[in-house]
Design brief:
The protein has 148 residues and is an alpha/beta fold. It folds into two domains: 30 residues; 115 residues, Pectate Lyase C-like (3 Solenoid). The protein has one helix and eleven strands.
Length: 148
């Protein structure tokens, strides 16, 4: 009787573990959530590719990892929280990054704020008087580079 009870209990425990493992595996393949409220466009997810047609002044929020986002048009702000995201865009007023290994390529930017490690921002011009973006960084191995 005692062995049967232990065996049944172990079977339930094993089945529960498989259900949890299945749920965690599904999280790994979460679809992108693209939503827009007023002038805020949010992208959440992992491993997705998106193109956003901006009309001007929007805030683009990207949360997740390994996403590839192309922004066509000018936006007010890009906020990136996550790891391994690649973002290409035109003219942006402010870029804020909180994460690691993100790569951002822009035509023009005024302000760049980075927290994290190994984030790279490349830009071609800035509307600032100096011609350089205003940059603040916290973390290690972050790079901001004005391209020619």
């Amino acid at each position: 009787m005692k062995r049967t009870t232990i065996a049944i209990g172990f079977a339930f425990l094993l089945a529960g573990g498989l259900v949890i493992a299945k749920d965690l595996h599904q999280i790994d393949r979460m679809p992108t959530v693209l939503s827009q409220q007023d002038k805020v466009i949010s992208i959440e997810g992992k491993g997705n590719t998106r193109t956003i047609e901006a009309k001007g002044g929007e805030t683009i929020q990207i949360e997740g990892m390994d996403n590839k986002v192309v922004i066509r048009g000018n936006v007010g702000k890009i906020v990136i929280e996550g790891k391994g995201n690649t973002v290409t865009g035109a003219d942006v007023s402010t870029v804020t990054i909180d994460g690691a290994n993100n790569m951002i390529n822009l035509r023009a930017v005024e302000t760049i704020q980075i927290e994290g490690i190994k984030n790279h921002v490349h830009y071609r011009s800035s509307k600032n008087k100096s011609g350089q973006a205003s940059v603040t960084t916290e973390g290690a191995d972050n790079m901001v580079m004005k391209m020619k």
